[in-house]
Structures are given as C-alpha cells and as structure tokens.
Amino acid sequence: MRHLSKLNKVGFDSFVHECHRTVFAKIDCTACGLCCRNFGPLFRNTDIKHICAEIGTDPKRFTERYLRQDPDGVGFLLKELPCPFQRADNTCEVYEERTLSCKSFPHTESVNIQKKLVGLALDSLYCPAAFLICEMIMAEY
User: Fold this and answer.
1) What's the CA gap between 7 and 4, in Å, rounded?
2) Are 48 and 77 in contact (CB under 8 A)?
3) Residue 15: other Cβ atoms inside 10 A
4) Do 52 and 24 fall within a single domain?
C-alpha cells in the first residue's frame, strides 16, 4: 500500500468511497468495537465542549479526568483505553456528540485518501471494515 500512496491515481477517492459504502452496508461496528478499545479518538476543543454539554460536566474537569495532550499538539488523547464512553454492547454513550475523529473513522470517506494509505493499513490491524476496504484497494490496484 505504501507504493500506491505515492502515485496519483485519477478517481482513487471515488473508488475508495464506493468501497466504504459497500463494506459499511454489511458491517455492524457494534459487533466489534475494537477501535474504541484500541485506538481512542483525537479530541478537539469543540469535541470536548459538545461532549461535556451532553454529559453535564465542566470541560476542565473532563480534560483532567480523561485526557492528555496529543504529542503533536493538535488536541487531546485519552489517558487510558478503552474509551470510557464505550458501553458493554459496543455502543457509544455519547454517540450523538462523539468526536469528529470517531465520526470519520476509518477515514475512508475523506479526500486525498491515497496520501493516507499507511494510516488505513494500520487501522486495518484492528478494524474489520478497514481491512476489507484495504483488500478491495489491493485487488483493484
């Protein structure tokens, strides 16, 4: 996949978006939940604000309890995994206000996906949907 990330294939995003739709028509994320147990999202200040409004807590208290600064300085990461909002049935306690990172995972509906294929390959280690999408990409290219 690394070699493919360096090429400029016309229509690549459209192809991957179609793969995403095909795979997620069959995959039920709540049957898995590995992303919530192994990755955890990036929390932006906006995400923190919305989640705190949902659960009725102060952003400062929320940050102190659950988060640590992202080493890249972009936002915050969970101090511990699994995500504290993952329920036993793999649903999310704050689903309607979940982070942008959670909403877009495994990021196969984004643009310029070709430049992000190494990340997608890493996601495929835990995410069955990402794995299937990677297989479809490799079969095509």
Assistant:
1) 5
2) no
3) 17
4) no
For 69, the domain range is 40-104
Tokens 């995400």 label which residue? 47
Angle CA(23)–CA(116)–CA(135) in degrees, nearest 5? 35
Whether 60 and 115 map to the same domain: the answer is no
What is the Cα–Cα distance from 13 to 95, expressed in whole angstroms?
Answer: 27
Q: For 91, which DSSP code?
A: -
User: Tell me, what amino acid is at 75?
Assistant: G
For the ranges 6-10, 79-83, 113-117, 122-126, which has the lowest average pLDDT? 6-10
65 and 46 belong to one structural domain: yes
Burial of 4 (0-12, 13-18, 19+ CB in 10 A): middle
Is residue 88 over pLDDT 80? yes
Tokens 């898995």 correspond to 32
Under DSSP, is residue 70 helix (H, G, I), strand (E, B) or coil?
A: coil
Residues 46 and 62 in one domain: yes
d(CA 30, CA 33): 6
Same-domain pairing of 86 and 132: no
pTM for the predicted model, two decimal places: 0.88
